[in-house]
Design brief:
By secondary structure, the protein is α+β, with helices and mostly antiparallel strands. It is about 50% helix and about 20% strand. It has one domain.
Length: about 130
């Protein structure tokens, strides 16, 4: 197989540079979006862990909603990947519900991803044994 004539090769001179200038920003954006998605998933996992921690702390027989909020804040502070976390815990006679909101770390400018995680569980309570 022989090379094409010299005149046809000169028509394509610099074509690779032009293609690279067009393709490189698109490839870079795809890579950044993949990393941003990973940061979002990580922050969502941490929010879920914080909500579960809050419910576990608020489920105790003598626990209160503030115990759950404090436990979740400690965990979220130690893990640190969730920005501006807000924790709310509601405790009724039968259930404890925790809600954690925050934002994922921002890698791509202009992309702000909100995170919301909730967890719910029964409240422990003493039920005296009844004899028939």
């Amino acid at each position: 197989m022989s090379a094409p004539p010299a005149e046809s090769r000169s028509d394509e001179r610099g074509a690779t540079s032009t293609e690279l200038v067009i393709a490189f920003p698109v490839v870079l954006l795809v890579i950044l979006l993949a990393f941003q998605f990973g940061l979002y998933l990580h922050a969502a996992q941490i929010a879920e862990a914080g909500a579960q921690e809050a419910v576990e702390a608020a489920q105790g027989e003598r626990a209160a909603a503030r115990h759950g909020e404090a436990a979740a804040r400690r965990l979220l502070r130690s893990l640190g990947a969730l920005r501006r976390p807000q924790v709310t815990v509601e405790r009724t006679a039968t259930t404890a519900t925790a809600r954690v909101t925050g934002h994922a770390q921002q890698l791509v400018p202009g992309v702000s991803l909100n995170i919301l995680a909730t967890a719910e569980g029964p409240v422990e309570r003493f039920v005296p044994e009844t004899t028939p």
